[in-house]
Amino acid sequence: MKSIDTYDFKGKRAIIRVDFNVPLDENFNVTDDTRIRAAIPTIKKVLAGGGSVILMSHLGRPKKNNEEKYSLSHIVPTVEKLLGTKVEFAGDSWGEKAAQMAAALKPGQVMMLENLRFYAEEEGKPRGLAEDASDEQKAAAKKEVKASQKEFTKRLASYADVYINDAFGTAHRAHASTALIADHFPDDKMFGYVMENELRAIDDVMGNPQRPFMAILGGAKVSTKIVIIEKLMEKVDSLILAGGMTYTFAAAQGGNVGDSKDEKDMHELALNILKKAKEKGIELYFSPDALCGDSFSPDANTKECDVFDIPAGWEGMDIGEQGKRKFIDAIKGQKTILWNGPVGVFEFDKFAAGTRAVADAIVDATKAGAFSLIGGGDSVAAINKFGLADKVSYNSTGGGALLEYIEGKELPGVAAIRK
Ligand code: AMP
């Protein structure tokens, strides 16, 4: 496998799949540039080596071409500022203009393609099918888009001499720019630094963790975390289970959870997890109390409740005081910590204190020598909101990709480079 550190970029055009899927405000200003900053070292490495760069990314989930709100043109000024270099915007991805601009690129120059997901070919999924389309129509549409996906991929590949995948956040997708394109560069494909660092950090944590190893899982639902909980139970010494899933576990054990999130079809699985943890000798931590709100809103009235006894009309939206103390004590002394998912609705200030307490405890453990890996969009957003991003060992840029990698699945974007 080629490495970005040793590859000779002199006179070469590198097409880099970056993850510039960043949040924008209503005036299209970038509100969190973490992902752009993460990609800068890879871009600079190519330029310093005498190469030129074609950047490509998706942004949001456009359903058709040229949706203004999703144009990558909004990102260009931020990239220029962080990179310190002019970035030419192509305005499309596989039209004549992009091809001409790529052909004219000189060493040291950078250009950026338009949002790849303006084209159905990026994902290879048909668009605009009628709701009542027959199975045959669906199959025909799929066949058609798969065929034009080949052309799309070929066109992207034709712009460059070397392909770099630096988009860990989309590595779990088998899209044109994240996986398929790699086949056009059998001897000139490699990971960028974001990818290299992500894979190394996760491999270290999962393969050879310093013990004790604790995982902290929060977020909204058990259903999206079930596989990872089971996978992590093969590795960790202890597990904090928090966030919305607390209430499914409490309800499964006969608790009254009021209006809290309760996934009834997950009760059996929840009870199974409790049983398995006992058998394996894994310490499970739940918050005994909840900070409840009387509506799912930032200005809800609040009160603390026992998680097994939440009155109707109230829902658990954060951990309570006892939960905070319990979690802080449990985190103390850990040597490896993996955190995915906030323990409360941290986006609302009234319900952010629990997530803040957990973040502070992770920072303290890190200061005391632990390796802390913060994974998943929302935990990283929380760490950023609290201004603690540089006080943990590693912030993963990938949400779904991180979870799938930890679950042991082969990520198409990773496999395409390694094969
Ligand atoms: P996930 O993407 O599954 O990690 O979920 C992240 C989301 O979970 C965040 O937006 C939180 O607001 C939300 N969340 C955390 N705790 C709760 C809770 N107790 N009830 C509802 N949502 C929650």
Descriptive report:
The structure is a single chain. The protein contains 14 helices and 17 strands. Helix 1 (34-48) packs across helix 2 (76-83). Helices cover 36% and strands 16% of the residues. The strands form four sheets. Strands 3-4-2-1-5-6 form a six-stranded parallel β-sheet, sandwiched between helices. Strand 16 (371-375), helix 12 and strand 17 form a beta-alpha-beta unit. The chain is α/β, with parallel strands linked by helices. The protein is globular and about 65 Å long. Adenosine monophosphate (AMP) binds next to strand 14.
> Which CATH architecture of the largest domain?
3-Layer(aba) Sandwich
Number of helices: 14
Specify the helix fraction band: 25-40%
The end-to-end span amounts to 8 Å
Average pLDDT level: 95
Going by CATH, the homologous superfamily of the largest domain would be Phosphoglycerate kinase, N-terminal domain
Characterize the main sheet. Answer: 6 strands, parallel
Structural class based on helices, strands and sheet pairing: alpha/beta
> Can you tell me the residue ranges where pLDDT is under 50 for at least 5 consecutive residues?
none
Strand order of the largest sheet: 3-4-2-1-5-6
Which ions, cofactors or small ligands are bound in this entry? adenosine monophosphate
